[in-house]
Amino acid sequence: MKQICFALFMLAICPVNFAEEIEEVAQETGSSLTVEVDGFASDEGKVMIALVDSKENYESDKPFKGVFAPIKNKTARYVFENLEPGEYAVKLYHDKNDNDELDTNFAGIPKEAYGFSRNARGTFGPPTYEKAAFTLNSTTTTIRITVK
Questions:
Q1: Which fold has domain 31-146?
Q2: For 46-65, what is each residue's pLDDT tens digit?
Q3: What are the residue boundaries of the structural domains of the chain, listed by start?
Q4: 2, 51, 77, 102: which sits with the fewest CB atoms below 10 Å from its CB?
């Protein structure tokens, strides 16, 4: 009877462990995106990097993933791990004074350096999602952005 109970117990927990192993393998095999940023005037503050996975994320203040990265030798680097292949865009700014926001003047023009994937630029305001978007389809991708 004890052997039967033990066997039923093992059968009950094995699928759970197997599913967890599959999930871990899937997470480890996702794509990675390295964002390298240059053009900073100083190492003060940090850079806020927002990764978006849709036009809606791009146009909102709610990115798919958002991080702050340190600036060293007037450059910054951050690696996003375990991403699904697809279309993404990056927008970022130099939070020079460490107040966690992009400072603007009275007309709404940024006073801190900023940049977008594909080094896209807008005419009056930020570039469109379509100008900044890129396709992530390899396991390791690096993009470079120069802030202005």
A1: Immunoglobulin-like (2.60.40)
A2: 999 999 999 999 999 889 99
A3: 31-146
A4: 2
